[in-house]
Amino acid sequence: MSALTRTNILSLYRSFLRVIERWPTDYLRPNRNLKHILHLRVTEGFRQNNAVKDADVLRALVLDAEIELDALRRLAENEFKEKVNYKFQSYTHFRIGFIDQQLIQNIIQDL
After folding, report:
1. How far is it, in rounded angstroms, from Cα 95 to Cα 85?
2. Better pLDDT: 14 or 80
C-alpha cells in the first residue's frame, strides 16, 4: 500500500469519525445510542479491511466507504429538511378527531 493510499484511507476514516461526532442524540430512545453503534461499525470495518493488499479490492472498498460517508453526511445534516414541506400534526390530535368522527357515526346509526 502506498503512502498516498494510506493517507487517503486515514483521511476517509477521520471523515467518518467527524460525521459520527456530529450525529444528533436521540432523546426518545436513550437506551439506543446510534452514534456509538455507527462508531463501532466504522472502526470494525476499517480494522477488518486493514490487511487488504489487492489494489482493485482496496479501490472498491474505498469507493463503497465514500458512498456510505456521503449518505451519513446527508442524514446528519438533515439535507432534505428544507426541501420537504411537512407540517407536523400531533398523533393525539389525529386520534381524538378520529374518535369524534366514529362517535358521531355511532350516534347517527343508533337513531
Report:
1. 23
2. 14
Cell digits of residue 73: 453526511
Cell of 6: 494510506
Best CA proximity match to 19, nearest among 82, 79, 84: 79
Q: Between 29 and 96, name the one with better pLDDT.
A: 29
Q: Is 2 exposed, middle or buried (0-12, 13-18, 19+ CB in 10 A)?
A: exposed
Q: The whole model's pTM is what? A: 0.66
User: What's the rounded Cα separation, in Å, for the pair 102 and 73?
Assistant: 45
Task: Give the span between the Cα atoms of 3 and 80, in whole angstroms.
Answer: 37
Question: End-to-end alpha-carbon separation of the chain, Å?
Answer: 83
d(CA 47, CA 32): 24
Note the pLDDT of residue 2.
54
